What does this fold into?
Amino acid sequence: MDLTSYVDSLRRELAGVAELGGEEVRALAERLTGSMESAFRLALLEALSAAAGEITRDLAPGSVELRLRGREANFVVAPPPVEPPLQAGPVDSGADASPVPDAEDGPVSRISFRLPDQLKSRIEEAANREGLSVNSWLVRAATAAVQSAPPGRPAARAARGGQRYTGWVR
It folds into this structure.
């Protein structure tokens, strides 16, 4: 996206307003617009970046990035992962073959769960870094975890050496 036409439009608007003040004001406006070009571009880039952030929040788990190459701004869109279509035929009764619903797909459910304060703080920081609410961040993380785990089996974990036992003991 070339920002030159937008910067030129701002210059024309300022020149048009300066015409009302006479020749001195017009000359001053021309000198100012020449030195203000970088400020105009920066303001436009900040607006585009803020727009990309808002779109990313609404598109989660997809994203939109604003990238700069020279004087041109480009948007890079990473759409949400597409779920494979369900196959007709018998379904393994041990696996949940239903797709992961998006928040827009229907009714929304509410759950409560307890987590350590330290983890809660880390989740809040991560959501804040990405410009998301805690709820949106958790929905994105849960969706990614469910989509990456093979049906019927727990997600693979990195080896930490030795044996590892999980569960409850009384």
User: Anything to note?
Assistant: Strands lie at 63-69, 72-78. Residues 23-59 form the longest helix (37 residues).
